[in-house]
Description:
By secondary structure, the protein is α+β, with helices and mostly antiparallel strands. The protein contains two helices and eleven strands; from the N terminus they run ββββαβββββββα.
Amino acid sequence: MPIEETVYFDTTNLIEGRTAKLTYKGALATAGAEEIYVHYGFGLLWENVQEAKLTKVADNTFEAEIALMASDSINFCFRDANNNWDNNETHNYSMPIAKEEVTVAKVETVAIDVPKLKKSYIIAKKIRIGFYKVITFLPKLFSGDLKRKVKE
């Protein structure tokens, strides 16, 4: 996301908790500085101020990875080893930081319709069980196995 053509990040949205690559091709780089540092802080009051050395990746081009903290914005400016500053003509550079979007999936409980047994099936089952009991009971009845054995 370009702030201007000489200062930009590698992503369109800066998101808290992630890192972003900052590229600098500004006045200090074009003036021939060999070491450039980014001085940055978070929020309107520049909280958690830090400084990181940019790595020279090409002529007049420097880069650094910056860890984005939980805040609404990042404010930054640049300096070289001789303490010459590029602070966007006293306005400093500033970019908004977005919150991490979290999606929550709603889980629904679905009742499964279990088909009820038909009455005819239940009646047929009861008849079969009753018939089985009668068939197993009759031989015992006629053989005399059902009589109690009395001890003499």
